Amino acid sequence: MSIYSMWGALEIGLIFGLVALGVLISFRVLNFPDLTVDGSFPLGGATAAILIHHGMDPFMATGAATLAAGFAGMVTGWLNVRLKIMDLLASILMMIALYSINLRVMDAPNVPLITDPTVFTVLQPPGIEDYVARPLILLALVVGAKLLLDWFFATQVGLAMRSTGSNPRMARAQGIRTDNMVLLGMAISNALVGLGGALFAQSQGGADISMGIGTIVIGLAAVIIGESILPSRRLMLATLAVVIGAVLYRFFIALALNADFVGLKAQDLNLVTAVLVTVALVIPLAKQRLRKKRA
């Protein structure tokens, strides 16, 4: 694998680290199976791309994309807590609706950003190649997002949200408004995913309507791989684990697709993803069996 492929894998892995943080909130903290991710990721990319293409400052466009995706997540939560639609079905309905919304936002199947300024071109330090600068910028953003989440979940509101996902009946008995916690948590989760989508569009030179396909699988793969490598009940370590899992996932993908002796091609990406997720799911079970045999 070439040095360019390694830097590229790190870059995409860090972007999906933001997605993994969002998936961690919905699936692990709130215990909410959220498939909105497949729609909110391209929503973030589409919103940022179209706004930058029409002359808006890239940072403001990225912020608007994050808010748009967060609002989509809040609507999913609203369908569940207010209209009493099953959580999984509510997220599927929102994911389907977002496909049409994303087409409306872009007014086309894709929006190129070849010559437009992005957060990476604005922040790129002089004398550093862009393929090196982008991962460094993303690393700073991901570390900042991780630390902010760690701080938030240590606050009273964050602890109330964790209690809502762990035991909603007990949380309500303690006076916590669990419906509001679900709405807030889904908004934060999808906002992180939308931020990842906005940065992905700017990194890859444009947004495409199909860029969100399989995003939830990648996010879950990152969470599962991270938890297998660094198992911990402490949320501070869990957020670190999913970011590491996202980066390792992209390195595994890049290694598999660039290894000549394996013979895989770009069209085998979904197959490689399925195999990696399967292995990540089997590893914890294998560890438990070994422990039982030793005991």
From TrEMBL:
Q: Where in the cell is it found?
A: Cell membrane
Q: Does the keyword Repeat apply?
A: no
Highest taxon, organism lineage: Bacteria
Transmembrane region(s): 12-30, 59-81, 88-106, 136-160, 181-203, 209-230, 237-257, 269-286
Q: Which organism is it from?
A: Castellaniella denitrificans
Topology in the membrane?
Multi-pass membrane protein
* CDD domains in the record: TM_PBP1_branched-chain-AA_like (cd06574)
- Major subcellular site: membrane
PANTHER family, A to Z: ABC TRANSPORTER PERMEASE PROTEIN YPHD-RELATED-RELATED, BRANCHED-CHAIN AMINO ACID TRANSPORT SYSTEM, PERMEASE PROTEIN
The UniProt keyword set, sorted, is: Cell membrane, Membrane, Transmembrane, Transmembrane helix
Q: Name one Pfam family in it.
A: BPD_transp_2
Protein name per its UniProtKB record: ABC transporter permease
